[in-house]
Write a structure and sequence with these properties.
Elements (H helix, E strand, L loop, with lengths): L8 E6 L6 H13 L4 E3 L20 E7 L1 H11 L5 E6 L9 E2 L3 H9 L4 E12 L5 E3 L2 E6 L5 E7 L2 E8 L1 E5 L7 H4 L11 E7 L9 E4 L4 E6 L5 E5 L2 E3 L5 E15 L7 H6 L7 H10 L7
Parallel strand pairs: 1-2, 1-3, 3-4, 4-5, 4-17
Antiparallel strand pairs: 6-7, 6-17, 8-11, 8-15, 9-10, 9-14, 11-12, 12-13, 14-17, 15-16
Helix pairs in contact: 1-3
Length: about 300
């Protein structure tokens, strides 16, 4: 594991409601000991929770995200344009993106200051709305109906039409986001490292269009035909005030950087630990009879 550079400053992202006081105390004490300033950066989505002086993210900063997966995704999106690494700290959650739980933050920070960590590079969806500013999505981009009625969405890949669907909407997800909203809607799990984009229809009313796995080299084009009630756009779980009707989406490799200390493997252990994948009841009953416990690696 190659040594990483010493951070020049700490840039903080905080969950809007979760208890983070213990982690904050640890972080502030450590920053004083190492003569590092702490600033809090603004991120898109969610209410603000001021806990430190406000500042702009700069190259050389270490971003520390205190909260859960949503906080981590906000921090990763904010860090993408300057290349700052993000250390995720789980505060009362089982999030799979956090490098450490809050109780282990002190030891993790000592490893950071000595450069004893691995940079895990994360791909992101580049979202190009027609006649609007570009956006990043680390998990997913979602078109969803607003209120009653349906929304019609045309989905094309490299100018080839896949489907015109009417229903609740469409999810376009990365491999990282495949275990989120897309999986809940019936989409497949795409393992990290797979260079692919996943398109999952939401409650399609008639017709037939199973979830589609798209090569990373392809472009996904989405055209929206809203009903009288309109539609909403969500990026990584946060609503965005976009009313554009056409979007181009493409996967960009190694867009954001996560701080990692361990071998993450394929991520299947984390999915099972969160209860998103569960064994068959018959298998669990057999284990109970025999006293067998599946091995955790």
């Amino acid at each position: 594991m190659a040594s990483q550079p010493r951070p020049a400053r700490i840039a903080l992202v905080v969950h809007p409601t979760r208890s983070v006081s213990g982690a904050l105390q640890t972080l502030r004490r450590w920053a004083r000991e190492h003569e590092l300033d702490i600033v809090q950066i603004a991120v898109a989505g969610g209410p603000e929770r001021p806990v430190s002086a406000q500042g702009q993210l700069e190259p050389g900063d270490l971003v520390v995200a205190l909260g859960g997966d949503g906080t981590m995704l906000s921090a990763l999106r904010a860090s993408a344009n300057v290349g700052a690494p993000v250390l995720g700290v789980a505060c009362g959650s089982l999030g799979v993106l956090a490098a450490v739980p809050a109780r282990r933050l002190s030891a993790a920070l000592e490893r950071v200051i000595t450069g004893d960590w691995t940079a895990r590079r994360i791909p992101a969806l580049a979202i190009h709305p027609a006649e609007a500013s570009d956006e990043w999505a680390l998990n997913d981009f979602v078109v969803v109906r607003r209120g009653a009625g349906q929304v019609v969405v045309d989905v094309s890949v490299d100018e080839e039409l896949y489907v015109r669907l009417a229903g609740d909407g469409l999810i376009v997800a990365t491999a990282l986001g495949s275990t989120g909203y897309s999986m809940a809607a019936g989409g497949p799990v795409v393992l990290p490292g797979m260079p692919a984009v996943l398109c999952t229809p939401l409650a399609m009313h008639g017709g037939s269009a199973p979830p589609l796995v798209v090569p990373a080299s392809s472009n996904v084009h989405v055209k929206v035909h809203p009903s009288f009630a309109g539609f909403e756009i969500e990026i990584d779980g946060h609503g965005h005030p976009l009313d554009v009707l056409e979007y181009d989406l493409s996967l960009h490799e190694e867009t954001a950087t996560m701080v990692s200390f361990d071998n993450l493997g394929l991520g299947l252990d984390g999915i099972r630990r969160r209860g998103l994948i569960m064994d068959s009841p018959r298998v669990l009953a057999r284990d109970s009879r025999t006293g067998f416990a599946p091995e955790r690696r």
